[in-house]
Write a structure and sequence with these properties.
By secondary structure, the protein is mostly helical. The chain has two domains: 21-86, Helix Hairpins (Orthogonal Bundle), CATH 1.10.287.990; 101-209, Iron/manganese superoxide dismutase, C-terminal domain (minor pseudopilin epsh fold), CATH 3.55.40. It contains eight helices and three strands, in the order αααααβββααα. Helix 1 runs antiparallel to helix 3.
């Protein structure tokens, strides 16, 4: 079936004061909805119209050339944002803190202290020029790695498309200005620092187990 906008798993004001209600309403109801609408419009009447978005972005090379960019941008945006809402939760009610279990072990193996992982992830978000995402991805050997993509690219598109970023994403932060500008203006670093308070590590751990 065509793509649909998933509901937020919490109220639009649930992530305050770290992410404000107005940003959530616009980000989810306007920006994400536009990705869904545009992706469906691009594929309407084709054999790809009912293919799940996750499959579409993995199979970009198979799409007709005149559909590829629209799907890359819009189905990519749909997939990215659908994960983004899920890996956040209200602070103190699933959001914030640190990971545990196998995910925590994998992070320690790659970066040592959790604080070092946060620093490196923050660097990935700050280092992305213009719009894009920072990701924590799982490699085939179950190790975890940090990378960044431009625009609405996703690591599952493959390293050739996603600027060398590959693997199975389990955590992603949106660094497009629409994700933070109403509250944080041009202070992306402040947004990223605050965002850790709403990361839902329980959900990220589920995604890590895959």
């Amino acid at each position: 079936m065509p793509m649909t906008l998933p509901p937020l798993p919490y109220a639009s004001d649930a992530l305050e004061p770290f992410i404000d209600s107005q940003t959530m309403q616009i980000h989810h109801g306007k920006h994400h909805q536009a990705y869904v609408t545009n992706a469906n419009k691009a594929l309407e009447g084709t054999k790809w119209a009912d293919v799940p978005a996750e499959d579409l972005i993995r199979r970009l090379a198979e799409l007709p050339e005149d559909k590829r960019t629209a799907v890359r941008n819009n189905a990519g945006g749909h997939v990215n944002h659908s994960m983004f809402w899920q890996i956040m939760a209200p602070a103190g009610k699933g959001g914030g803190g640190e990971p545990s279990g196998a995910l925590a072990d994998a992070i320690r193996k790659s970066w040592g202290e959790f604080s070092h992982f946060k620093e490196e992830f923050q660097k990935a978000g700050m280092g992305r020029f213009g719009s894009g995402w920072a990701w924590l991805c799982v490699a085939p050997d179950n190790s975890v790695q940090i990378c960044s993509t431009a625009n609405q690219d996703n690591p599952t598109m493959g390293k050739d498309i996603a600027g060398g970023c590959g693997g199975r994403p389990i955590l992603g932060v949106d660094v497009w200005e629409h994700a933070y500008y109403l509250k944080y203006k041009n202070l992306r670093a402040d947004y990223l620092a605050a965002w850790w308070n709403v990361v839902n590590w329980g959900k990220v751990a589920e995604l890590y187990k895959g």
